[in-house]
Amino acid sequence: MIIAIDLDNVLNNLADFWRRRINQKYGYYVEQSELKNYDMAANFPTLDREQVEEFLNRYDIWRDLTPTNGAQEIVKALNMTDEVYIVTARHGFPQYYPTFVWLRRYFPYIPEKRIIFAQNKEMIRCDVLIDDCPANLVRDDCVTLQYRQPWNSDRVWGTAIVNDWVDVYQKIRAIGGANEETSGISG
Ligand SMILES: [Mg+2]
C-alpha cells in the first residue's frame, strides 16, 4: 500500500510547540486542548496574523520541534512493509530546508524521494492518508485516517479517527489485511 503521512501535528507536535512560544512571548495561557481552530491565528484573535505566524519562519522552531510519541518507531515498521511517503505543505522556500533537515534527523530511513512538498494534497495518489486537517481528510479515492487533534474533534471528517500512533498502526494493519483478502493476493 502507498501510505501518505502528513508532517505537522501528525509526525510532530508543531501546534503544541507553537502555542507555547506565543504564550511565552505575549503572556497568554492557551492550552493545547483550547486550540479549536486549524488556523492558529484564529486561536489568538487578539493578535495579528503576522505576530502568530512569525514563529514559523524562525529556524529555532524546526531545531527544537520533537516527534509525536511512537511516530518514529511505527513509521519505521510501516516503511518495512509498505511505501511510506511524507507529504507536507510548506509556505515559502525558507521553510523547506529546515523541514528537510528535521526529517533527516528523526526519520532518516525515509529516503529523499519519499518526501513530497505539496500544498495540494488531493493531487497525491495514495491508499491511505494520515492527516489532521479537515479539508485534507475529505476524499473518496483513498482511506483517510483523521489524526485526532482539538481542532478536528468536533466531527468525523475522515474514514476513521486515530488517537495515537499505536492506533494508526492497528488501523493500517486492519486495512492491509482486508485489502489482501478482497484482492485475493493473500498468502
Ligand atoms: Mg498537519
pLDDT < 50 runs, ≥5 residues: 181-187
The CATH topology of the largest domain comes to Rossmann fold
Question: How helix-rich are the residues, as a percent range?
Answer: 25-40%
- Major sheet attributes: 6 strands, parallel
Decide which structural class fits the backbone.
alpha/beta
Would you identify the CATH H-level superfamily of the largest domain?
A: HAD superfamily/HAD-like
Identify the CATH class of the largest domain. Answer: Alpha Beta
Task: Please tally the β strands and state the result.
Answer: 6
**Would you list the SSEs in sequence order as H and E?**
EHHHHHEHEEHEEH
How many angstroms separate the termini? Answer: 16 Å
Give the cofactors and ligands.
magnesium ion
CATH architecture tag of the largest domain: 3-Layer(aba) Sandwich
Radius of gyration: 17 Å
| Widest sheet: strand ordering | 3-2-1-4-5-6
Form type:
globular
Count of spatially separate domains: 2
Whole-number mean pLDDT: 92
Beta strand %: 5-15%
Count of DSSP H/I helices? 8
